[in-house]
């Protein structure tokens, strides 16, 4: 069952990174990936409370 959760997380994470990468932000650092990782961290923290 844990593999299913990891797979779902990978699918959602890669889809979110792809959708955010469409936003044209030009920077040396991958700002879109950083933003998605921060949002996902807050989301996982929120989920683990319950």
Care to give the gist of this entry?
With about 50 residues, the chain is mostly helical.
Describe the oligomeric state of these chains in a short phrase.
Answer: single chain
Estimate percent helicity: over 70%
Mean pLDDT: 86
Strand % is under 5%
Extended strand count: 0
Number of domains: 1
What's the end-to-end separation, in Å?
Answer: 19 Å
Please render the helix and strand layout as text.
Elements: H1 2-21, H2 31-49
Task: Pick out its properties.
globular, 50 residues, mainly alpha
Outline the structure in words:
- The protein has 50 residues and is mostly helical.
- The protein is 78% helix and 0% strand.
- It contains two helices and no strands.
- Helix 1 packs antiparallel against helix 2.
- The radius of gyration is 13 Å and the shape is globular.
- The two termini are 19 Å apart.
- The mean pLDDT is 86.
């Amino acid at each position: 069952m844990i593999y299913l959760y990891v797979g779902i997380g990978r699918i959602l994470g890669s889809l979110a990174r792809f959708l955010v990468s469409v936003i044209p932000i030009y920077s040396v650092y991958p700002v879109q990936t950083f933003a998605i990782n921060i949002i996902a961290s807050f989301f996982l923290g929120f989920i683990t409370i319950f």
